[in-house]
Fold each of these.
Amino acid sequence: MAITGLKTWSDGDALNTTNLNNDKTILAAKFNGNITNADISASAAIDTAKLSAKHYEIVLNMKVEGVAWTARNASTTKIVAVAGLPADVTATQYDIVEIDWCFFCGANNIAAAPAFDIDWGYFGSDTVWTTTTAVKNAQSTGTLTAQQGSIGVIAAPAASVTTSTTRHEVFALRIDTVGDFDAADQELTVSIKLKRNAGLRT
């Protein structure tokens, strides 16, 4: 935003204290706490180490292999992987921009498609999981033949998560449907892309 109010000098103007001090006051007021986003050039390339708002955009990855999935398939809703956000001193909100997943089928066919959930929550003092935000429910990997893979993109999920100042919350990858995900050499990876939208100043 342009600085306004400065005197436009003309030939013959007197260099008096009133005019000079007025310009000084305007400039001092601008630079002492009144610089806004509009004053920053898009090409300024400010070093992120100088910004209070760190961890602005984050990608979290979770992976589970068949042996871990089948070890917990006595019942569904079991957690098979977790990923957390950086700790913060304030409650900070992140929009979930996109979720990408990739499922690889190993030696055996997948005739009954597994499905997974992604939740945001925490383990309480009794070690019991509590979900605070259900991010995605029953995402199917589809059916596959041996040595094939499938990928999927969940664009703009209708969810955001907020960090807590009193407990450490994480994303959990959970079994929704066991399917034919077996202990051979199958693998599921999930990437969660987040963008911080609140708590940008400490």
Amino acid sequence: MAYTLTDNAGSAFGLGTVISEDSSKTSGLFQTPLPLSDSNESIMLDLFGASRTINIRGIYTGTVAEINTFVQALDGLLNGSQNTKTFHSDKSNASYLVLINSVRWNSEDGAVTKVDYEIEMVEGSF
């Protein structure tokens, strides 16, 4: 299976070629040191759960019109009232419910048929 990003209606967002994926899962640990004590005596509790951030970088190629449509669709992922999307990772072969935290795209002079992009997603239950 390939990298995919789909909305609740099953419509897929074309990702072009994903060249890298970075997934970071962190725990919101509660940690407090005790006065006059070393770090091995600090109080630690796993109270706040875990969170995951997924970043992908990719390249989208096509005609000038296709690039324009892709860039508009990429910017449209952040509209102020997002619905959840499902991201399927080719690396982990897992699917995640996500919201889009940020998008970034870059086009170099002379490369009118190619755009580089990045998408930052946050996993959760919405």
